Amino acid sequence: MSDKVFLKAIGSVESGNNPRAKNKESSATGEHQFMWSQWGNQIQQFAGDPELTRDDFANDPELQRKWSEYYVNNILDPEVEKLKQRYPEQLKSRDRK
To answer: How far, in Å, CA of 55 to CA of 59, rounded?
Structure first.
């Protein structure tokens, strides 16, 4: 599955693909509902803007797209690879089903 298809599917479930979505019960923000309380500092570093706010992020679909792609390629994918290496037999048996 391509990153774009994956991110579109996540966005569909998380926000109905609404980049301006902000969860009223948590700090989840944007199309992919990143928890600002968890990822805000890293998003600020990624954007090169230590003053970037949750509202700024919610109002910048292009930054959200770039961050989401970065997140998948540099944070999520490496963790998936670690799991594949750690549990090869369990994953092999799942592939046969």
So the answer is: 6
